[in-house]
Amino acid sequence: MDDATAPTAPTEAAGPGTEKGTVYFEDLEVGGKAPVRTLTLTRTDLVRYAGASHDLNPLHHDDERARAAGMKSVFGHGMFSAGVLATALTDLVGIGNLRGYKVRFTTQAWPGDVLSTDITVTSKDEAVGLVELDCQLVNAEGTAVVTGSAVATPRRRA
Amino acid sequence: MSATDLIGTQLPPATVVVERGAIAAFAEAVADASPVYQRPDAAAAAGFEAIPAPPTFTFAARLLGAFPDLQPGRPDGALDTTEIIAALRGDGGLILHAEQEFTYHRPVLAGTTVRVTGEVEDVRVTTNSRGKRMTFVRLRSDTRDEAGELLVTEVMTLLHRA
């Protein structure tokens, strides 16, 4: 993953016992965007995910087999894209604070694709401290490879 | 076989060891550099009793930690995901992973053993605009700790295009 670019979510200096860069419930605004994370997909990314997930479907690491199946090359595991998008979500709301996460797989991600996360806060419930977010991973043409939504309970200021 | 006959089919239950190394490697593979997934002290500082698993880890957990000697008996009629896919594809067509949904109840922690059960929750057969049959199959999996407390519920939606 490349460095995050253009953070737009407000951040506070970390207080005692908080992770560096913690974003609090109070910092999130409806319509606000999470910092964008961008990566250029490589075959190495796919091999690493295949090994770490034990998903050894050859369509994701063997170009010959992928072309025999009618694809132009190997392509990304849907769950790799979903995992990268989840990383951007927990970067925003904090590890352990996701309550739900749902994705639809809409198109393939190909080696060389520049993939960017796009996360928007869609609602806040002050009473229970819940935020809802829309999220997607988009390629350089702006086409979503994964679209989804999440529900989270970010840390609150005491 | 009609696809709707699959409704209620159990997935084989699994006993899954959640290992620190598996979590660390998985976190790296989804581009998560947080020390919470690598270091027990960082996990403790973030409020966890042990290193937690990343959000999508349980999708892979059965493949990573269901060691054969720990597995319970397989109930009659249970089918694993590969067998369900084969049953759907019996008369050809394409199978796609259409959707994946996670509901998080409690953290999945390194050093623990979890139990996974599941079933075919629903099957819907529709026809697309070109008159092709589309079959959506919802597979629900529940991951529980050894005390039986629910940790994560997952629903995988498969799409079979005839």
UniProtKB/TrEMBL annotation, chain B:
InterPro entries linked: FAS1-like_DH_region, HadA-like, HotDog_dom_sf
Gene3D superfamilies referenced in this protein's UniProt entry, alphabetically: Hotdog Thioesterase
FAS1-like dehydratase domain location: 6-153
Coiled coil: none
SUPFAM superfamilies: Thioesterase/thiol ester dehydrase-isomerase
Listed CDD domains: R_hydratase_like
Name of the protein: FAS1-like dehydratase domain-containing protein
